[in-house]
Amino acid sequence: MKSLGNIRREFAPWNKPDAKPYIQFKNVTKRFGDFTAVNNLSLSIYEREFFALLGASGCGKSTLLRMLAGFEEPTSGQILLDGQDLRGIPPYRRPVNMMFQSYALFPHMTVEQNIAFGLKQDGMPKAEIEQRVTDMLKLVKLGQFAKRKPHQLSGGQRQRVALARAVAKRPKVLLLDEPLGALDKKLREETQFELMDLQQTLGLTFVVVTHDQEEAMTMADRIAILDKGEVMQVATPAEVYEAPGSRFVADFVGNINMFEGKVADRDSSGATITSANGVTIRTANAGDAAAGSEVAFAIRPEKIKVSSKKPENGDNVMEGEIYDIAYLGDMTIFHVQLGNGQVVKASSLNATRATEDPLSWDDKAWISFRNDAGVVLTR
Amino acid sequence: MKHPLSAITNRLVILVPYLWLLFFFLIPFFIVFKISLSTTAIAMPPYTPTLGLADGFSGLLSQIGEFSFDNYLWLTQDALYFNAYVSSVIIAGISTFLALLVGYPIAYGMARAPATIRPTLLMLVILPFWTSFLIRVYAWIGILKPEGLLNQLLLATGVIDQPLVILNTHSAIFIGIVYSYLPFMILPLYSALEKMDYSLIEAAQDLGCPPASAFWKITFPLSLPGVIAGCLLVFIPAVGEFVIPDLLGGSQTLMIGKTLWNEFFANRDWPVSSAVAVILLLLLVVPIMFFQQAQARAQEQGR
């Protein structure tokens, strides 16, 4: 089977019809006064999955996490964890632990005491607590900082302490609220991979809330994209990127060019789309779009080729003019204005140091893309 | 480059509080200390020696030679003073503890109230200061006396059938001190509780800690700087309190502020009352130093 994004997945319980979901949101609604934070939402998360809730601020992702942790109760609907209804169970009796966005480390306790806090609550024997704390400190590589107070640590170190404290109790599910939000870019990238390793090592189910799509794409097995308290799409990162289910998802994740139009012709090999501003596009990925229906054709910038000469072959070729160029080092982004005035973004990888086909502002240029490069969006 | 003038203005700015302390604390203190070393006299002012250069420099020296610590010795010989100090510390201590018990829930409630109504609540705490302290204490006489408002209310509702004797007892002093100094307890507690991150409580609960236990393990330890500040702000003035024990406590109450007042106005013994004041000050320097150390520590912790 052809896999999207060229990633072969061993772990995909969501594709198995007999797999039992570990966490289930069933028609969950949460209202705060007049404001509906979560609207009749249903979602399934599987055991050992690294699941990301992605959305802009106010989309309800944090509310979902807080309902799982027990800080909020759903107004209606049901949340099940391992088959058990969580309604009425207070946060201190739930087998989930949360890593807070602010880390919420206890400022009057040392790193050690912070990590041991949850274990002491469980009445674990002292020797076992010590052993577990030592293991946790080793896991997050903070052994020599055991006796420090949180304010004596750097941001990255605090983040690790928060993580160690949250996993110390070996929860069934670890909830992470914007876990990397407070770190700088470089540290964030490193930590993303560490989190993934940690999840593999401990074999826990992770549910992470983030507004950073790159973070979600890198770490998660599956991503749920939320908007106004509703799930727009739940899919693997590659599916979300390459086969977005709606205009919202296509636009929200990454950069994309959209051509609004109608299906002019539909056959078994694909469809021809005429856009409202007079562009005709031939595509092989027409999905369930019927002839005559209003659709959008969406295509990512990196799938469009820009050249100064008209390409010999190519399924879709359009003429335009270079409107803007952004050189980013690893790639260059061209904004090409078509004859009809629409500006199309195209990016090309700078695989060599010098290019044979240099393009400059106001140059005449051709854009081309294959008929399987874009998708047709009906919603 | 620093402007040379700015260095001078910097020093002047620093000088102001030192001058303030010099004129309004250190010089008056030395005057009191000097009087405490004198002996009473039927004169104006009512003590000798009075320092002056009327008899030249040698005269001044012989006047200084007359200073003695007899008044301090006297304080150790009459048990009245020792008892008054101890009783003041006990009454102030109990009142401080009661003020903490009353003030903590109020401060906690204020800190957890919606941000929009917090300024109003703060205003309500400070509002009593707009009326004279003396009038407010007098008002308590009207409330607490046997035929007062409280007894009338309790009798009318049938809770009691004999009026309670509250006025002129220690209970009245506790009520008076707690009432008068409550804002000094609430404000530092509020400021400590208000800046506390509520997610810490959520984190504690998330880690398996029930709410009541989370309060004692997280909230209370983190509000400790506020607790210490509030307790000292109540305890220190309460030890030397004169008006409340005099008006509400009746004649049998022994407190150092009252003793001092009696020595000064009734006995007209300025030297002994000055000695009482100096010892009271030394007694209070200990908690004040403790307070400052606690503040420095809180600052060091940074947040």
Please tell me about this protein's structure.
- The complex is a heterodimer of chains A (379) and B (303).
- Chain A has 379 residues and is an alpha+beta fold.
- Chain A folds into two domains: 170 residues, P-loop containing nucleotide triphosphate hydrolases (Rossmann fold, 3-Layer(aba) Sandwich); 123 residues, Nucleic acid-binding proteins (OB fold (Dihydrolipoamide Acetyltransferase, E2P)).
- Chain A contains eight helices and 20 strands.
- In chain A, helix 2 crosses helix 3, helix 2 packs parallel to helix 4 and helix 3 crosses helix 4.
- Chain A is globular and about 75 Å long.
- The two termini of chain A are 26 Å apart.
- The mean pLDDT of chain A is 86.
- Chain B is mainly alpha-helical.
- Chain B has one domain: MetI-like fold.
- In chain B, helix 1 runs antiparallel to helix 13, helix 4 crosses helix 10 and helix 10 packs antiparallel against helix 13.
- The two termini of chain B are 33 Å apart.
- The mean pLDDT of chain B is 88.
- The interface between A and B is medium-sized, with 25 and 21 residues.
Radius of gyration of chain B: 25 Å
Strand order of the largest sheet of chain A: 6-7-8-3-9-10
- How much of the sequence lies in strands of chain A comes to 25-35%
Please indicate the count of domains of chain A.
2
Separate helix tally of chain B = 13
Our count of domains of chain B comes out at 1
Helix content bin of chain A: 10-25%
CATH arch. level architecture of chain B:
Orthogonal Bundle
Number of helices of chain A: 8
Structural class of chain B: mainly alpha
